[in-house]
């Protein structure tokens, strides 16, 4: 099949999943076309079966903000027409599903057999869903899609609760490359971080407010006060980095915290990690937690959204109520102080991650494409 995939090029979960899905589909013999306003972070190698199409945003004095949705729709029209796409898979309802609908309307009968698959990832529902300025557009865009998927049961239910959706939503979870995200021997790296020994605790995110990055610093402070010799690695960057750095200074522990910025090879950091912290205020799945678990790293997280579907309480780590710093600090200390418990949870984390193996989930998407395409051809 010739498959178009539309995504944001960010380090966040949706951009990662869309890009890795494209790679997985290409490995199964399909031709992929990725559309975005910049090259996705994980599209890091040259391949003949994956083509990147940059959506150009020309600047005109008339527009304060260039109309990305219209430029995107125009690229979609050209791809459907000239690359003869079999499927157009958009990640995020706004504006991608809206642009896809417009593209099909422009092409009319020429695009009749090309299904639009919309995958909901989270903020297009949980954040935009709370903004009445977009509700009618989200309703329309999802309902006009030929197939709709969500990355967790939680997100599926939230979508039905917040919007007037008449389409069936299929839950297809996020996935992880088990070969890439596995624990490898990086003792030299760990020794450089902890020259006198000790534990390594890691957090990975885009440092937006919803990730509650300052809470990570507060939890780490509890861990240190509980007598654990440790270092904290903060991977990523974003608006709340400064707040987190200020909190380190206020608590007087800057020497024990390292801000590494955005990292392409995050699996190398996870390979030296003893614990992963994710105190987020909203997570519709928790891909960062899954990647940590795949590397055998126990997780302490908040109990919101889709995180309980990924991090199993008392098995792969612990869940605490949102904002309960004391609980997270206590649970983290339990894991780090008890070698047997840590070993047990580490093994369980990897085993649970295997349920989200990349090839298995890619095959589910592949079958779903055919199911929706076949159904569309019957109705037309």
Key features?
6-stranded parallel beta sheet; 16% strand; Rossmann fold; single chain; 2 domains; 13 strands; 380 residues; 7-stranded parallel beta sheet; alpha/beta
The CATH architecture term of the largest domain is 3-Layer(aba) Sandwich
CATH class of the largest domain, named Alpha Beta
Look up the CATH topology of the largest domain.
Rossmann fold
Structurally, the number of domains stands at: 2
Based on DSSP secondary structure assignment, what is the total number of beta strands? 13
Coarse structural class: alpha/beta
Q: Tell me the Rg in angstroms.
A: 22 Å
Largest sheet: 7 strands, parallel
List the helices and strands and how they pair.
Elements lengths: L1 E5 L6 H15 L3 E6 L13 E5 L13 H15 L4 E5 L1 H15 L8 E5 L2 H4 L8 H9 L3 E4 L2 H10 L6 E3 L15 H7 L5 E6 L8 H13 L4 E6 L5 H11 L5 E5 L4 H5 L4 E4 L8 H8 L4 E4 L4 H4 L6 E4 L4 H13 L1 H15 L4 H22 L1
Parallel strand pairs: 1-2, 1-4, 2-3, 4-5, 5-6, 6-7, 8-9, 8-11, 9-10, 11-12, 12-13
Descriptive report:
- There is one protein chain.
- The chain has helices at residues 13-27, 68-82, 93-107, 123-126, 135-143, 153-162, 187-193, 213-225, 241-251, 266-270, 287-294, 307-310, 325-337, 339-353, 358-379, and strands spanning 2-6, 31-36, 50-54, 87-91, 116-120, 147-150, 169-171, 199-204, 230-235, 257-261, 275-278, 299-302, 317-320.
- By secondary structure, it is of the alpha/beta class.
- The protein folds into two domains: 2-175 and 357-379, Rossmann fold (3-Layer(aba) Sandwich), CATH 3.40.50; 187-356, Glycogen Phosphorylase B (Rossmann fold), CATH 3.40.50.
- The strands form two sheets. It has a seven-stranded parallel beta sheet, with helices on both faces. A six-stranded parallel beta sheet has the order 10-9-8-11-12-13, with helices on both faces.
- Helix 1 packs across helix 15 (358-379), helix 3 crosses helix 5 and helix 11 crosses helix 14.
- The mean pLDDT is 92.
